[in-house]
């Protein structure tokens, strides 16, 4: 073995060490994030008594789908409520997402491409809302919604979620537009396209990953939100899932399998959405980070 | 007065309330200064099933049964984890109300125990409250003093003030005016696991007699078996905490004020008295010195103790008889070997009186809930349908429904509920009911002050957490809490 190959082997070994270290770290992170989900799933298929057993049963000796049957059966009150809450969450989150994208896309484009007085100030001021804890705005927003006649409507939630979802969406998309070369639009304009046509036909298709990432952010934010939904809605038929799953907690007891089954079902749309669209999501995050 | 159908009812109906009145207006000592031979489990058994009541007939006199209206109503609901039996009664209640008053459009909303007060407060700020609300006993004076509630007394809904516990009526009275009606009243008991006691070398059938014994037993259980001895809870902004700490505080002779005295006037703050500090020291000894309670006690509430107890990881806790029913439900739904294990837990459950302090004082929180009507200006829509509100209040506080809605774990707010056939049935079905009934004479109501929720749900748990986390010594924590109460009473905080 000559000296050159010796150095190369040593470097490879060092690299292998780092690689293995990275793999172990990733494995640890995987366990760290996946175990709670697995535990949630396992608890959801236990009976109430088995869920409280100590030492805990890692795999239930008597697995049961009773909690899921309960949740998905529209014939019983639990199932009826759960399915209604699920639908309400879906409506609120979808509406929030659509509106967030509709407003954020042109707003971010404007911040990226136009130069106008107060642009910088406005751009930073959209973030102002997100610099404070949500609870600070709870009572003022509640009074505002009451004034607007929106208490006990899903409109109050959509409007509120937009107040903290939009700034993030605008910032995310602006970074994305900054990385789309302006020359592409200029070329389209030279070819006779109007600004709107250049935006719709050239910029929009290129910004699909960014728009999808924005949509996922908005959807997850609205899907998981609890405190505003809890405060603004007082009618059972209007409640969303995060508030609805509260019914598994009582004054002196908790229905753990029911709670875990509901939580698992609640995580399904978000996980599916993320799995289907993850390549766009990752692309949007990385593209916004690099200047071309 | 209630419609009584049985002949002997009048005599029974007058004796019991008078006895109750004397019971609950007096101090809670180991030897109750009332004739317990009358108000004993035997007495309750003797009056159970002696009278019949017609709820629809009685409430029809308050609000005609064909009345057409609309009512929004919030209440602390029962949910999936609660005993099936109780959930069924809640379902039956609303069905029965709708059947009796088919023209009242009822929009009811169940809220969870820990969230109800906060959500209600927010709704009031936005003038979006419901027309009627059923709140924990602590809420009555707070909202009455702030002017949110309409005056309301039992006579307004067809009952008599004497039909309700005087201690409970006090909790809905502010400045001499009644603002609500008690729906149910409760006193808890000590529950222990006989098997754990036996394995720890303790008498499996004997409850600890004093709070000092609780500390000793808890340590012995932890040292011998490695499981938690006593189910201490110190969570902030959770009603479970004062319900479990106040009996200890009063037992040692302490108090926030003089609420455990025969005629309290809440003038003197006693939270930093030597007796109060001894009570706090007992919690400190269990949590810090002996480490014999769950390490998560600082954020635990009763719902966290229950799984530990059922899994054989906790020796003692304070709770309702409803825990027994929860266990029965779990056993019913368990499969295979779990069914047997669950039965073993049930067989090992024991209920006893809450321990006394070193001087023999025994006390328990006289808890429960009240029902109220809101003033129109705070209600969503600016209108209150008073006849509709009175109809549901009459219904809930009737002997029949105040008993049924408290079936598994509490006592009827309307004392005539004790005389119904459902009480008789309940005595046969709900094991350990006698024990909690025996605790009634020792019940002490929370101070009937608007500041009581802040004191009980925030200052008391804060005091415990300050001492148990070592942020302050026991003395400092008690002094700090007393100072906060003083500031609060002076209009500060």
From TrEMBL, chain A:
A single GO cellular-component term on record: plasma membrane
Subcellular location: Cell membrane
Domain annotation ABC transmembrane type-1: ranges: 86-277
Highest taxon, organism lineage: Bacteria
Transmembrane segments: 20-42, 85-109, 121-145, 157-177, 198-220, 256-277
UniProt-listed GO biological process terms: transmembrane transport
Swiss-Prot/TrEMBL keywords: Cell membrane, Membrane, Sugar transport, Transmembrane, Transmembrane helix, Transport
Keyword presence, Membrane: yes
Major localization listed first in the record, in broad terms: membrane
Membrane topology, from the record: Multi-pass membrane protein
InterPro entries, sorted: BP-dep_ABC_trans_perm, MetI-like, MetI-like_sf
Family: Belongs to the binding-protein-dependent transport system permease family. MalFG subfamily.
Free-text function comment from the UniProt entry: Part of the ABC transporter complex MalEFGK involved in maltose/maltodextrin import. Probably responsible for the translocation of the substrate across the membrane.
Protein name from the UniProt record: Maltose/maltodextrin transport system permease protein MalG
From TrEMBL, chain B:
Gene3D superfamilies xref list: Periplasmic binding protein-like II
Xref: InterPro entries: SBP
Protein origin, superkingdom: Bacteria
Keyword check for Transmembrane helix: no
Keyword Transport set for record: yes
Protein family according to the UniProt entry: Belongs to the bacterial solute-binding protein 1 family.
Stated name of the protein: Carbohydrate ABC transporter substrate-binding protein, CUT1 family
Native species: Neomesorhizobium albiziae
